[in-house]
Specification:
Helix content: 25-40%
Structural class: alpha/beta
Strand order of the largest sheet: 1-2-3-12-13-14-15-16
CATH class of the largest domain: Alpha Beta
Largest sheet: 8 strands, parallel, barrel
Distance between the termini: 26 Å
Strand content: 15-25%
Number of strands: 21
Number of domains: 3
CATH superfamily of the largest domain: Phosphoenolpyruvate-binding domains
Length: 483
Protein backbone atom coordinates (compact mmCIF):
# COMPACT_ATOMS: atom_id res chain seq x y z
CA UNK A 1 0.00 0.00 0.00
CA UNK A 2 1.54 3.31 -1.07
CA UNK A 3 1.37 6.69 0.63
CA UNK A 4 -0.76 8.20 -2.14
CA UNK A 5 -4.17 6.62 -1.68
CA UNK A 6 -7.04 8.67 -3.07
CA UNK A 7 -8.17 10.87 -0.22
CA UNK A 8 -11.63 10.59 1.31
CA UNK A 9 -13.89 13.41 0.08
CA UNK A 10 -15.44 14.08 3.46
CA UNK A 11 -19.05 13.45 2.44
CA UNK A 12 -21.41 10.49 2.30
CA UNK A 13 -23.65 11.09 -0.76
CA UNK A 14 -21.98 10.69 -4.14
CA UNK A 15 -21.92 12.89 -7.25
CA UNK A 16 -22.54 11.50 -10.74
CA UNK A 17 -21.31 13.59 -13.68
CA UNK A 18 -22.52 12.88 -17.22
CA UNK A 19 -19.86 13.18 -19.92
CA UNK A 20 -20.63 14.81 -23.25
CA UNK A 21 -19.36 17.43 -25.72
CA UNK A 22 -18.55 19.87 -22.90
CA UNK A 23 -16.61 17.35 -20.84
CA UNK A 24 -15.09 14.54 -22.91
CA UNK A 25 -11.62 16.06 -22.98
CA UNK A 26 -9.33 14.08 -20.64
CA UNK A 27 -8.23 17.25 -18.86
CA UNK A 28 -11.85 18.23 -18.17
CA UNK A 29 -12.63 14.71 -16.90
CA UNK A 30 -9.67 15.02 -14.52
CA UNK A 31 -10.95 18.43 -13.37
CA UNK A 32 -14.42 16.95 -12.78
CA UNK A 33 -12.90 14.23 -10.62
CA UNK A 34 -10.89 16.75 -8.61
CA UNK A 35 -14.03 18.89 -8.17
CA UNK A 36 -15.88 15.95 -6.63
CA UNK A 37 -17.25 13.58 -9.29
CA UNK A 38 -17.39 10.03 -7.93
CA UNK A 39 -19.17 8.40 -10.89
CA UNK A 40 -18.92 9.18 -14.60
CA UNK A 41 -22.05 8.51 -16.65
CA UNK A 42 -21.77 7.60 -20.33
CA UNK A 43 -25.11 8.39 -21.96
CA UNK A 44 -25.56 6.03 -24.92
CA UNK A 45 -28.48 8.12 -26.20
CA UNK A 46 -25.76 10.47 -27.46
CA UNK A 47 -22.23 10.11 -28.75
CA UNK A 48 -20.59 7.20 -30.53
CA UNK A 49 -19.13 4.04 -29.08
CA UNK A 50 -15.72 5.44 -30.00
CA UNK A 51 -16.43 8.59 -27.95
CA UNK A 52 -17.39 6.52 -24.92
CA UNK A 53 -14.37 4.25 -25.29
CA UNK A 54 -12.05 7.27 -25.20
CA UNK A 55 -13.79 8.48 -22.06
CA UNK A 56 -13.23 5.13 -20.35
CA UNK A 57 -9.52 5.27 -21.22
CA UNK A 58 -9.26 8.75 -19.70
CA UNK A 59 -11.12 7.71 -16.54
CA UNK A 60 -8.94 4.65 -16.02
CA UNK A 61 -5.81 6.78 -16.38
CA UNK A 62 -7.05 9.11 -13.63
CA UNK A 63 -7.83 6.04 -11.54
CA UNK A 64 -4.28 4.79 -12.00
CA UNK A 65 -2.75 8.18 -11.23
CA UNK A 66 -4.82 8.71 -8.08
CA UNK A 67 -4.79 5.09 -6.87
CA UNK A 68 -8.51 5.28 -6.25
CA UNK A 69 -11.20 3.18 -7.93
CA UNK A 70 -13.46 5.33 -10.12
CA UNK A 71 -16.95 4.30 -11.15
CA UNK A 72 -18.20 4.20 -14.75
CA UNK A 73 -21.95 3.99 -15.40
CA UNK A 74 -23.30 3.35 -18.88
CA UNK A 75 -26.87 4.49 -19.52
CA UNK A 76 -28.71 2.58 -22.24
CA UNK A 77 -30.98 4.60 -24.52
CA UNK A 78 -34.00 2.29 -24.37
CA UNK A 79 -36.97 2.37 -26.77
CA UNK A 80 -37.73 5.75 -28.30
CA UNK A 81 -41.35 6.26 -29.30
CA UNK A 82 -41.83 9.04 -31.82
CA UNK A 83 -44.39 10.37 -34.30
CA UNK A 84 -43.45 10.54 -37.96
CA UNK A 85 -42.63 13.62 -40.08
CA UNK A 86 -45.09 16.33 -41.18
CA UNK A 87 -45.70 18.25 -44.38
CA UNK A 88 -43.60 21.37 -43.93
CA UNK A 89 -42.01 19.92 -40.79
CA UNK A 90 -44.72 20.98 -38.33
CA UNK A 91 -48.40 21.81 -37.84
CA UNK A 92 -50.41 23.82 -35.33
CA UNK A 93 -53.16 21.93 -33.50
CA UNK A 94 -56.08 23.55 -31.69
CA UNK A 95 -57.76 22.51 -28.46
CA UNK A 96 -60.76 20.24 -29.03
CA UNK A 97 -59.73 19.29 -32.56
CA UNK A 98 -59.86 15.69 -33.75
CA UNK A 99 -56.49 14.17 -34.55
CA UNK A 100 -55.71 10.68 -35.84
CA UNK A 101 -52.59 8.62 -35.24
CA UNK A 102 -52.04 5.59 -37.46
CA UNK A 103 -49.48 3.37 -39.20
CA UNK A 104 -49.75 5.11 -42.59
CA UNK A 105 -46.20 6.36 -43.46
CA UNK A 106 -47.55 9.36 -45.42
CA UNK A 107 -46.45 12.80 -44.19
CA UNK A 108 -48.52 14.18 -41.33
CA UNK A 109 -51.08 16.99 -41.60
CA UNK A 110 -53.25 18.94 -39.18
CA UNK A 111 -55.63 15.93 -39.30
CA UNK A 112 -53.28 12.96 -38.75
CA UNK A 113 -49.72 11.66 -38.40
CA UNK A 114 -47.94 8.33 -38.50
CA UNK A 115 -47.16 6.68 -35.17
CA UNK A 116 -44.98 3.74 -36.27
CA UNK A 117 -45.45 1.69 -33.11
CA UNK A 118 -48.15 -1.00 -33.37
CA UNK A 119 -47.42 -1.95 -29.74
CA UNK A 120 -48.94 1.36 -28.68
CA UNK A 121 -52.17 0.77 -30.59
CA UNK A 122 -52.39 -2.74 -29.14
CA UNK A 123 -52.34 -1.32 -25.60
CA UNK A 124 -54.56 1.74 -26.03
CA UNK A 125 -58.18 1.94 -24.95
CA UNK A 126 -60.75 4.75 -25.01
CA UNK A 127 -59.82 7.34 -22.40
CA UNK A 128 -56.09 6.67 -22.61
CA UNK A 129 -53.78 9.68 -22.84
CA UNK A 130 -50.98 10.26 -25.32
CA UNK A 131 -48.34 12.86 -24.53
CA UNK A 132 -46.11 14.38 -27.21
CA UNK A 133 -42.97 16.50 -26.91
CA UNK A 134 -42.41 15.93 -23.15
CA UNK A 135 -46.07 16.57 -22.43
CA UNK A 136 -46.33 19.89 -24.23
CA UNK A 137 -49.20 18.36 -26.21
CA UNK A 138 -51.82 15.96 -24.85
CA UNK A 139 -54.32 13.80 -26.72
CA UNK A 140 -57.18 11.73 -25.28
CA UNK A 141 -58.16 8.55 -27.13
CA UNK A 142 -61.80 8.51 -28.30
CA UNK A 143 -61.66 5.24 -30.25
CA UNK A 144 -58.87 2.94 -31.37
CA UNK A 145 -57.97 -0.25 -33.19
CA UNK A 146 -54.91 -2.35 -33.98
CA UNK A 147 -53.55 0.28 -36.38
CA UNK A 148 -55.10 3.64 -35.41
CA UNK A 149 -56.28 5.91 -32.62
CA UNK A 150 -58.82 8.70 -33.03
CA UNK A 151 -58.06 11.35 -30.42
CA UNK A 152 -59.14 14.74 -29.15
CA UNK A 153 -56.54 17.45 -28.64
CA UNK A 154 -56.61 18.28 -24.93
CA UNK A 155 -53.49 20.46 -24.73
CA UNK A 156 -52.82 22.20 -28.03
CA UNK A 157 -49.72 23.59 -29.66
CA UNK A 158 -47.28 23.05 -32.48
CA UNK A 159 -46.29 19.47 -33.22
CA UNK A 160 -43.23 18.86 -35.37
CA UNK A 161 -41.27 16.02 -36.93
CA UNK A 162 -40.38 12.98 -34.84
CA UNK A 163 -41.30 14.35 -31.43
CA UNK A 164 -41.27 11.86 -28.60
CA UNK A 165 -44.43 10.12 -27.41
CA UNK A 166 -45.28 9.01 -23.86
CA UNK A 167 -48.15 6.69 -22.99
CA UNK A 168 -48.62 7.00 -19.22
CA UNK A 169 -51.82 5.02 -18.70
CA UNK A 170 -50.83 1.60 -20.07
CA UNK A 171 -48.08 -1.00 -19.95
CA UNK A 172 -46.63 -1.46 -23.42
CA UNK A 173 -45.54 -4.82 -24.79
CA UNK A 174 -42.15 -3.39 -25.67
CA UNK A 175 -38.91 -4.89 -24.33
CA UNK A 176 -36.72 -2.52 -22.31
CA UNK A 177 -33.71 -3.29 -24.52
CA UNK A 178 -33.68 -2.53 -28.25
CA UNK A 179 -31.22 -4.02 -30.73
CA UNK A 180 -29.13 -0.86 -30.31
CA UNK A 181 -29.15 -1.32 -26.55
CA UNK A 182 -28.04 -4.93 -26.85
CA UNK A 183 -25.10 -3.93 -29.06
CA UNK A 184 -24.21 -1.00 -26.78
CA UNK A 185 -24.43 -3.22 -23.71
CA UNK A 186 -21.94 -5.74 -25.04
CA UNK A 187 -19.65 -2.90 -26.08
CA UNK A 188 -19.86 -1.25 -22.68
CA UNK A 189 -19.18 -4.52 -20.87
CA UNK A 190 -16.14 -5.07 -23.10
CA UNK A 191 -14.89 -1.66 -21.93
CA UNK A 192 -15.28 -2.67 -18.29
CA UNK A 193 -18.15 -0.42 -17.21
CA UNK A 194 -19.16 -0.90 -13.58
CA UNK A 195 -22.89 -0.18 -13.72
CA UNK A 196 -25.53 -0.48 -16.47
CA UNK A 197 -28.56 1.80 -16.27
CA UNK A 198 -31.65 0.32 -17.90
CA UNK A 199 -34.23 2.71 -19.37
CA UNK A 200 -37.96 2.08 -19.92
CA UNK A 201 -38.35 -0.38 -17.03
CA UNK A 202 -42.03 -1.29 -16.73
CA UNK A 203 -41.97 -4.69 -15.01
CA UNK A 204 -39.57 -6.98 -13.08
CA UNK A 205 -39.09 -9.08 -16.22
CA UNK A 206 -37.30 -6.14 -17.87
CA UNK A 207 -34.65 -6.23 -15.13
CA UNK A 208 -34.34 -10.01 -15.41
CA UNK A 209 -33.69 -9.66 -19.15
CA UNK A 210 -30.73 -7.33 -18.73
CA UNK A 211 -29.39 -9.35 -15.79
CA UNK A 212 -29.27 -12.44 -18.01
CA UNK A 213 -27.30 -10.47 -20.60
CA UNK A 214 -24.90 -8.85 -18.12
CA UNK A 215 -24.05 -12.15 -16.37
CA UNK A 216 -22.63 -10.48 -13.28
CA UNK A 217 -20.10 -8.33 -15.13
CA UNK A 218 -21.66 -5.06 -13.90
CA UNK A 219 -24.28 -3.84 -11.46
CA UNK A 220 -27.76 -3.08 -12.81
CA UNK A 221 -29.46 0.27 -12.19
CA UNK A 222 -33.18 0.27 -12.93
CA UNK A 223 -34.36 3.70 -14.06
CA UNK A 224 -37.84 4.37 -12.72
CA UNK A 225 -39.45 6.63 -15.28
CA UNK A 226 -42.69 4.77 -16.15
CA UNK A 227 -45.80 4.78 -13.95
CA UNK A 228 -46.24 1.05 -14.60
CA UNK A 229 -42.98 0.37 -12.77
CA UNK A 230 -44.29 1.98 -9.60
CA UNK A 231 -47.10 -0.58 -9.43
CA UNK A 232 -44.41 -3.23 -8.91
CA UNK A 233 -41.82 -1.05 -7.17
CA UNK A 234 -40.66 -3.43 -4.46
CA UNK A 235 -40.31 -6.36 -6.87
CA UNK A 236 -38.22 -4.24 -9.26
CA UNK A 237 -36.03 -2.96 -6.42
CA UNK A 238 -35.50 -6.55 -5.21
CA UNK A 239 -34.25 -7.61 -8.66
CA UNK A 240 -32.06 -4.52 -9.18
CA UNK A 241 -28.61 -3.74 -7.79
CA UNK A 242 -29.49 -0.03 -7.65
CA UNK A 243 -32.32 2.28 -8.72
CA UNK A 244 -32.48 5.70 -10.37
CA UNK A 245 -35.35 8.12 -9.78
CA UNK A 246 -35.63 9.50 -13.32
CA UNK A 247 -37.73 12.51 -12.41
CA UNK A 248 -37.81 14.05 -15.89
CA UNK A 249 -39.83 11.28 -17.51
CA UNK A 250 -41.83 10.65 -14.34
CA UNK A 251 -42.79 14.31 -14.38
CA UNK A 252 -44.04 13.98 -17.95
CA UNK A 253 -46.11 10.85 -17.42
CA UNK A 254 -47.45 11.69 -13.97
CA UNK A 255 -48.76 14.89 -12.38
CA UNK A 256 -45.82 17.04 -11.31
CA UNK A 257 -47.12 17.34 -7.76
CA UNK A 258 -46.75 13.56 -7.32
CA UNK A 259 -43.05 13.41 -8.23
CA UNK A 260 -41.64 14.60 -4.84
CA UNK A 261 -43.82 12.05 -3.05
CA UNK A 262 -42.72 9.27 -5.41
CA UNK A 263 -39.08 10.27 -4.92
CA UNK A 264 -39.42 9.71 -1.18
CA UNK A 265 -41.32 6.46 -1.66
CA UNK A 266 -38.66 5.04 -3.97
CA UNK A 267 -35.83 6.09 -1.66
CA UNK A 268 -37.55 4.42 1.31
CA UNK A 269 -37.98 1.17 -0.61
CA UNK A 270 -34.32 1.16 -1.64
CA UNK A 271 -33.03 2.00 1.84
CA UNK A 272 -35.07 -0.79 3.38
CA UNK A 273 -33.50 -3.28 0.98
CA UNK A 274 -30.01 -1.86 1.15
CA UNK A 275 -29.98 -0.93 -2.56
CA UNK A 276 -28.24 2.28 -3.70
CA UNK A 277 -30.64 4.92 -5.02
CA UNK A 278 -29.83 7.81 -7.35
CA UNK A 279 -31.88 11.00 -7.71
CA UNK A 280 -31.55 12.45 -11.21
CA UNK A 281 -32.73 15.09 -13.68
CA UNK A 282 -32.56 18.89 -13.67
CA UNK A 283 -30.91 19.15 -10.27
CA UNK A 284 -28.81 22.20 -11.17
CA UNK A 285 -30.41 22.81 -14.56
CA UNK A 286 -29.77 26.55 -14.68
CA UNK A 287 -26.02 25.87 -14.50
CA UNK A 288 -26.16 24.74 -18.12
CA UNK A 289 -25.91 28.46 -18.90
CA UNK A 290 -25.30 30.15 -15.55
CA UNK A 291 -22.26 29.91 -13.24
CA UNK A 292 -24.63 29.78 -10.25
CA UNK A 293 -27.69 27.62 -9.58
CA UNK A 294 -30.98 29.00 -8.35
CA UNK A 295 -31.80 28.79 -4.64
CA UNK A 296 -34.61 26.39 -5.51
CA UNK A 297 -32.16 24.06 -7.25
CA UNK A 298 -29.81 24.11 -4.28
CA UNK A 299 -32.78 23.21 -2.08
CA UNK A 300 -33.72 20.40 -4.48
CA UNK A 301 -30.28 18.82 -4.14
CA UNK A 302 -30.43 19.28 -0.37
CA UNK A 303 -33.83 17.57 -0.20
CA UNK A 304 -32.47 14.48 -1.96
CA UNK A 305 -29.61 14.34 0.54
CA UNK A 306 -31.94 14.76 3.52
CA UNK A 307 -34.06 11.93 2.06
CA UNK A 308 -31.02 9.66 2.25
CA UNK A 309 -30.18 9.28 -1.45
CA UNK A 310 -26.91 7.49 -2.18
CA UNK A 311 -26.10 9.74 -5.14
CA UNK A 312 -27.31 12.78 -7.04
CA UNK A 313 -26.77 13.18 -10.75
CA UNK A 314 -25.81 15.95 -13.15
CA UNK A 315 -26.95 15.44 -16.74
CA UNK A 316 -26.82 18.28 -19.28
CA UNK A 317 -25.12 20.46 -16.64
CA UNK A 318 -21.85 18.58 -17.20
CA UNK A 319 -22.49 16.96 -20.59
CA UNK A 320 -23.33 20.11 -22.55
CA UNK A 321 -23.27 23.00 -20.10
CA UNK A 322 -20.94 25.97 -20.02
CA UNK A 323 -19.75 25.32 -16.45
CA UNK A 324 -19.34 21.53 -15.99
CA UNK A 325 -16.58 21.65 -13.38
CA UNK A 326 -18.29 24.39 -11.43
CA UNK A 327 -21.54 22.41 -11.41
CA UNK A 328 -19.79 19.42 -9.80
CA UNK A 329 -18.04 21.64 -7.27
CA UNK A 330 -21.36 23.31 -6.40
CA UNK A 331 -23.09 19.99 -5.83
CA UNK A 332 -20.15 18.82 -3.69
CA UNK A 333 -20.45 21.90 -1.47
CA UNK A 334 -24.23 21.56 -1.07
CA UNK A 335 -23.88 17.92 0.01
CA UNK A 336 -21.16 18.68 2.54
CA UNK A 337 -23.20 21.52 4.03
CA UNK A 338 -26.31 19.37 4.41
CA UNK A 339 -24.38 16.49 5.95
CA UNK A 340 -22.91 18.81 8.56
CA UNK A 341 -26.41 19.69 9.77
CA UNK A 342 -27.52 18.02 13.02
CA UNK A 343 -30.97 17.59 11.51
CA UNK A 344 -29.45 15.43 8.77
CA UNK A 345 -27.96 13.07 11.35
CA UNK A 346 -31.28 12.78 13.15
CA UNK A 347 -33.08 12.06 9.86
CA UNK A 348 -30.63 9.25 9.03
CA UNK A 349 -31.27 7.77 12.48
CA UNK A 350 -35.04 8.11 12.14
CA UNK A 351 -35.03 6.55 8.67
CA UNK A 352 -32.99 3.53 9.67
CA UNK A 353 -34.80 0.24 9.12
CA UNK A 354 -34.63 -2.82 11.34
CA UNK A 355 -31.54 -4.99 10.71
CA UNK A 356 -31.85 -7.84 8.26
CA UNK A 357 -32.94 -11.00 10.07
CA UNK A 358 -29.65 -12.82 9.55
CA UNK A 359 -26.33 -13.26 11.29
CA UNK A 360 -24.56 -10.85 8.89
CA UNK A 361 -27.34 -8.30 9.38
CA UNK A 362 -27.06 -8.52 13.16
CA UNK A 363 -23.25 -8.24 13.06
CA UNK A 364 -23.44 -5.16 10.84
CA UNK A 365 -26.05 -3.46 13.02
CA UNK A 366 -23.89 -4.16 16.07
CA UNK A 367 -20.87 -2.64 14.31
CA UNK A 368 -22.82 0.56 13.67
CA UNK A 369 -23.86 0.77 17.31
CA UNK A 370 -20.30 0.16 18.52
CA UNK A 371 -19.02 2.82 16.13
CA UNK A 372 -21.58 5.32 17.40
CA UNK A 373 -20.70 4.60 21.03
CA UNK A 374 -16.95 4.93 20.44
CA UNK A 375 -17.30 7.83 17.96
CA UNK A 376 -15.26 5.69 15.60
CA UNK A 377 -13.42 7.28 12.69
CA UNK A 378 -14.80 4.62 10.31
CA UNK A 379 -16.58 1.33 9.87
CA UNK A 380 -14.02 -0.77 7.97
CA UNK A 381 -15.38 -3.62 5.85
CA UNK A 382 -13.23 -6.36 4.36
CA UNK A 383 -15.06 -7.83 1.38
CA UNK A 384 -14.58 -9.66 -1.89
CA UNK A 385 -17.98 -9.11 -3.49
CA UNK A 386 -18.94 -5.82 -1.82
CA UNK A 387 -21.87 -7.37 0.08
CA UNK A 388 -20.39 -6.66 3.50
CA UNK A 389 -19.89 -3.01 2.55
CA UNK A 390 -23.44 -2.66 1.21
CA UNK A 391 -24.77 -3.96 4.53
CA UNK A 392 -22.72 -1.38 6.41
CA UNK A 393 -23.96 1.46 4.16
CA UNK A 394 -27.57 0.33 4.67
CA UNK A 395 -27.14 1.10 8.38
CA UNK A 396 -26.28 4.74 7.58
CA UNK A 397 -23.63 4.92 10.34
CA UNK A 398 -22.37 8.21 11.77
CA UNK A 399 -18.89 7.28 10.51
CA UNK A 400 -17.76 6.80 6.91
CA UNK A 401 -17.58 3.25 5.60
CA UNK A 402 -14.25 1.98 4.27
CA UNK A 403 -14.35 -0.84 1.75
CA UNK A 404 -11.10 -2.80 1.58
CA UNK A 405 -11.22 -5.36 -1.19
CA UNK A 406 -8.86 -7.32 -3.46
CA UNK A 407 -11.53 -7.14 -6.19
CA UNK A 408 -11.16 -4.02 -8.34
CA UNK A 409 -14.65 -4.51 -9.82
CA UNK A 410 -16.21 -4.49 -6.35
CA UNK A 411 -14.20 -1.42 -5.35
CA UNK A 412 -15.29 0.48 -8.43
CA UNK A 413 -18.98 -0.29 -7.88
CA UNK A 414 -18.78 1.22 -4.41
CA UNK A 415 -18.43 4.68 -5.96
CA UNK A 416 -22.23 4.73 -6.21
CA UNK A 417 -22.84 3.75 -2.58
CA UNK A 418 -23.59 6.12 0.31
CA UNK A 419 -20.70 6.80 2.66
CA UNK A 420 -18.23 4.36 1.11
CA UNK A 421 -14.55 5.05 0.46
CA UNK A 422 -12.99 2.09 -1.38
CA UNK A 423 -9.40 0.88 -1.26
CA UNK A 424 -8.38 -1.90 -3.64
CA UNK A 425 -5.47 -4.26 -3.03
CA UNK A 426 -4.59 -7.78 -1.94
CA UNK A 427 -3.46 -6.78 1.54
CA UNK A 428 -4.79 -9.64 3.66
CA UNK A 429 -2.87 -12.87 4.06
CA UNK A 430 -4.23 -13.95 7.44
CA UNK A 431 -6.83 -12.76 9.94
CA UNK A 432 -4.02 -11.25 12.00
CA UNK A 433 -3.42 -8.69 9.23
CA UNK A 434 -6.78 -6.97 9.34
CA UNK A 435 -6.06 -4.54 12.19
CA UNK A 436 -2.82 -3.23 10.70
CA UNK A 437 -4.30 -3.03 7.19
CA UNK A 438 -7.39 -1.17 8.41
CA UNK A 439 -5.34 1.37 10.36
CA UNK A 440 -2.89 1.90 7.50
CA UNK A 441 -5.68 2.43 4.93
CA UNK A 442 -7.72 4.73 7.18
CA UNK A 443 -4.74 6.94 8.01
CA UNK A 444 -3.48 7.19 4.43
CA UNK A 445 -6.97 7.97 3.17
CA UNK A 446 -7.25 10.89 5.60
CA UNK A 447 -10.12 9.27 7.52
CA UNK A 448 -8.47 8.45 10.87
CA UNK A 449 -5.72 9.76 13.14
CA UNK A 450 -3.99 8.64 16.32
CA UNK A 451 -6.28 7.77 19.20
CA UNK A 452 -9.38 7.13 17.08
CA UNK A 453 -11.22 3.83 16.92
CA UNK A 454 -12.02 1.77 13.83
CA UNK A 455 -14.78 -0.83 13.86
CA UNK A 456 -14.00 -3.72 11.52
CA UNK A 457 -16.46 -6.17 10.00
CA UNK A 458 -15.45 -9.12 7.85
CA UNK A 459 -16.42 -12.63 6.89
CA UNK A 460 -14.46 -15.66 7.90
CA UNK A 461 -13.21 -17.48 5.94
CA UNK A 462 -12.20 -14.63 3.60
CA UNK A 463 -13.63 -14.77 0.11
CA UNK A 464 -16.94 -16.43 0.98
CA UNK A 465 -19.77 -14.17 -0.23
CA UNK A 466 -22.34 -13.21 2.39
CA UNK A 467 -20.38 -14.57 5.34
CA UNK A 468 -20.08 -11.41 7.48
CA UNK A 469 -19.60 -12.94 10.92
CA UNK A 470 -16.95 -10.91 12.76
CA UNK A 471 -16.72 -7.49 14.38
CA UNK A 472 -13.53 -6.11 15.86
CA UNK A 473 -12.37 -2.79 17.29
CA UNK A 474 -8.89 -1.43 16.69
CA UNK A 475 -7.35 1.86 17.73
CA UNK A 476 -5.05 3.98 15.61
CA UNK A 477 -1.74 3.93 17.46
CA UNK A 478 -2.63 0.76 19.43
CA UNK A 479 -5.00 -2.18 19.18
CA UNK A 480 -7.65 -3.90 21.25
CA UNK A 481 -10.12 -6.27 19.76
CA UNK A 482 -13.25 -8.27 20.21
CA UNK A 483 -14.69 -10.94 18.05
Amino acid sequence: MTDDLGQYRGRRAKVIATLGPASRDPEVIADLFEAGADVFRLNFSHGSQEDHAKSVVAIRQIEKDRERPITVLMDLQGPKLRVGPFEGGKVLLKTGANFRLDLDPALGTEKRVCLPHPEIFAALKPGSNLLVDDGHLRFRVKSCGKDFAETEVVIAGTISDRKGVNVPDVTLAIPAMTDKDKADLQFGLSQGVDWVALSFVQRPEDVAEVRAAVKGRAGIVSKLEKPAALDQLDAIVDLSDAVMVARGDLGVEMPLEQVPILQKRIIRSCRKRGKPVVVATQMLDSMIKSPMPTRAEASDVATAIYDGADAVMLSAETAAGQFPVRAVATMHRIIKQVESDEHYVSLMDAGRHDPEHSSPGAITAAARQIGQTLKAAAIVTFTTSGTTTLRAARERPDSPVMCITPNVAAGRRMGLVWGVHAVVGDFIHSVDDIGDVAVDAAVKSGIAKDGQALVITAGMPFGKVGSTNMVRVVWVGGETGMQ
